[in-house]
């Protein structure tokens, strides 16, 4: 089911990832929603943070090494997070962000090799 949700968002994610202004707008929305949201699981926070920073680093040109497929998947995952229409509505206390966390975990799993390389680059940069 998660894979289907990502595939549904893929065309929109591709369009967003090809436009810097739209990518910036998505990142801004995601940051704002994250500040207001309480993930029920720590892994949801970690996955969101990793994907957010990865897209931001790619967008700025600081880390241009992500394959196009990975950028689209990251964008789709973050897009799902900010989209108000979810499998489980976000306003349901305690469980509303479980579907968001599942989508983000799916994206992390799908592009784990690329994210591992990004994390290594990020850790060595400091």
TrEMBL record:
Which residue ranges traverse the bilayer?
66-85
Per UniProt, the keywords (alphabetical) are: Membrane, Transmembrane, Transmembrane helix
What subcellular compartments does it reside in?
Endomembrane system
One Pfam annotation reads DUF1232
Answer yes or no on keyword Transmembrane helix.
yes
Topological type in the membrane:
Multi-pass membrane protein
Concerning InterPro entries, the annotation shows: DUF1232
Please provide one cellular component term from the Gene Ontology annotations of this protein.
Answer: endomembrane system
Reply yes or no: does the keyword DNA repair apply: no
Coiled coil start-end: none
Domain of life of the organism encoding this protein: Bacteria
Q: Where is the DUF1232 domain?
A: 72-106
Q: What protein name does the entry list?
A: DUF1232 domain-containing protein
């Amino acid at each position: 089911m998660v894979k289907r949700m990502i595939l549904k968002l893929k065309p929109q994610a591709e369009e967003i990832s090809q436009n810097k202004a739209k990518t910036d707008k998505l990142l801004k929305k995601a940051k704002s929603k994250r500040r207001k949201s309480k993930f029920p699981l720590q892994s949801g926070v970690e996955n969101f943070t990793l994907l957010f920073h990865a897209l931001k680093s790619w967008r700025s040109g600081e880390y241009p090494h992500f394959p196009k497929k990975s950028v689209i998947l990251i964008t789709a995952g973050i897009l799902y997070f900010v989209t108000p229409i979810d499998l489980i509505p976000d306003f349901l206390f305690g469980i509303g962000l479980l579907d968001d966390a599942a989508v983000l975990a799916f994206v992390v799993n799908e592009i784990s090799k690329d994210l591992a390389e990004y994390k290594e680059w990020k850790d060595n940069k400091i």
